[in-house]
Amino acid sequence: MDDVRVFPVSYDRRIRLTKKMGINPLSRIILLTIGLLIIWQAIVWLGSLPPYILPGPGAVLKTAYQQRSLLLHQGMLTLTETLLGLLCGSLLGVMSALIIAYFQPLRHWLLPILVISQALPTFAIAPLFVVWFGYGMASKIATTILMLYFPVTTAFFDGLRRTNPGWLYLAKTMGGSRWRILWHIRVPAALPNLASGLRIAAAIAPIGAVVGEWVGSSAGLGFLMLNANARMQIDVMFAALVTVTLMSLALYFSVDKLLRMAMPWVNELTCPHE
Amino acid sequence: MIYQVNDTQPCPALHIRNATLRYGQQAVFSNLDCSIPLGQWSCLLGPSGVGKSSLLYLLADIIPKQRQTQMQATISCDADWIVRENLAYMGQDDLLLPWLSVFDNVLLGASLRGANKSSIARRARSLLAEVGLRDVIERRPAALSGGMRQRVALVRTLIEDRPIVLMDEPFSKLDAITRLRLQEIAARLLKDKTVLLVTHDPLEALRLADNVLIMKGRPAKLKAPLHLNGEKPRNIQDTELLHLQAQLLECLRNG
Q1: Closest CA to A241 of A202, A201, A214
Q2: B235 secondary structure, DSSP code
């Protein structure tokens, strides 16, 4: 009879264990941040590093507070470039994927262009964008678009290409036109893939904007970092870096949340252990 | 007697002539001829992989395109409509779209044709109610059981309102009781349609069919050993039916 009792006991224990391990995401992020800050401070103390090599988290926070209006002003600029780049790049990626998926003969011509867009080293091409589009926002947006165009397009196109064939056959017997089958079946079926692409895009879009500012601009967090670095204001540099990181995290999690809300059926399908 | 050995009475039919399907060197069937009487249920039995589903795909023009696939057939019909534009297909998988509600899944055909949905919405609601799905109309498929999903697929097939209905093992993934219940619903709602039902289950064929066809061999040949009379679905406790089932199983096993 013991065998019979073993299962409920261990099952119960497993549930308790899962509950114990399942800390909510927000407290996890806070714990992680505190841990990283402690390690950072420990490195400063153990290496007795002067502030112009590596300032401690306290010093950086102090600078960030003192320079808050500068950081906010420059940060808003970088955020605007990031969001515009994300929007334009995603739209361009979505349209390219749709064109490649729908017009099959064009596919062989457009796919190499797609790969080239990824093969071009962004750092090398960014100064060219400054020459072409000027010192202002346009060149930063262009750099961002260049960086996220490939992941968005390939992710979405991959989804469009892998529609469940059963759905397509069913649609064919129903007499659906190619365009309507694309719109009603292939596109919604590929949305989870597009979402993966957009998540990656959200994560790398701020990098695109900062790189754009780095190679030629007179404003933005990238410019601020470059400038502070040249003047050995390492604390300002770190304060800008922290701002970019926070911005990227906020952007990523907002995009993730929005995508989940827009596609409620996707979570219904994922395995319970996720 | 509920059955008789098939005597080829001439009645209006759907004809498949010289049907050939090969993948590379391998012929699934070649020069296959077959007539499916209109307004009746024909059930196609045979071992796995013999080409039963392929015959349905051929009729529906949905043969998966692979390299070195050779396919030809002359398909005609004694009624004066084009076969491929007048059939509905229901597969083994329910093929419900996970992002659409039950109701929108049922109206998928209308969406794909850009047709007016409001004219068939009432019929869709009443059919869903008739198969016991009134309360889940706005749910998404993930919230439904296998039997419920297959009922949605059945309603989606019915709403297409096509004279020919091709069914590829539509109930094979369901438990025995659910399967019997769905057979009854399908028999009632598809009463006057021309149905070609592929199945592995001789009892299912005997419950539902007017004609039983057997496909076997490679390249596959078709035999039509049985024509059955009487009301459908037939009672599974009928001893004659059970006797026939044994005969049919023997026939499937030995040829």
Answers
A1: A214
A2: P
The answer to the question of residue A42 being in a domain is: no
Chain B residues 71-130 within an 8 A CB cutoff of chain A: 85, 87-89, 91, 93, 95, 97-99, 108-109, 111-114
Interchain contact, B62 vs A172, CB within 8 Å: yes
Q: Is residue A230 part of a domain?
A: yes
Residue A160 tokens, joined? 């469009």
**CATH number where A231 lies:** 1.10.3720.10
- Domain span at residue A198 reads 56-268
Question: For chain A, how big is the Rg over CA atoms in Å?
Answer: 24
pLDDT in tens, A120-157: 888 888 899 999 998 889 999 999 999 999 999 999 99
Are A169 and B112 within 8 A, CB to CB? Answer: no
Q: Could you give phi then psi for residue B23, rounded to 5 degrees? A: -110, 105
Q: How many domains in chain A?
A: 1
ipTM of the complex: 0.88
A181 located within any domain: yes
A49 within domain boundaries: no
DSSP three-state, residue B215: strand
B164 in Cβ contact with B194 (< 8 Å): yes
Which pLDDT tens digit goes with each residue over A170-187? 999 999 899 999 999 999
Chain B residues with beta carbon closer than 8 angstroms to that of A164? 95
The three-class DSSP label of residue B216 is strand
Question: What's this model's pTM, rounded to 2 decimal places?
Answer: 0.83
Q: Which of B24, B10, B28 is nearest to B73 (CA)?
A: B28
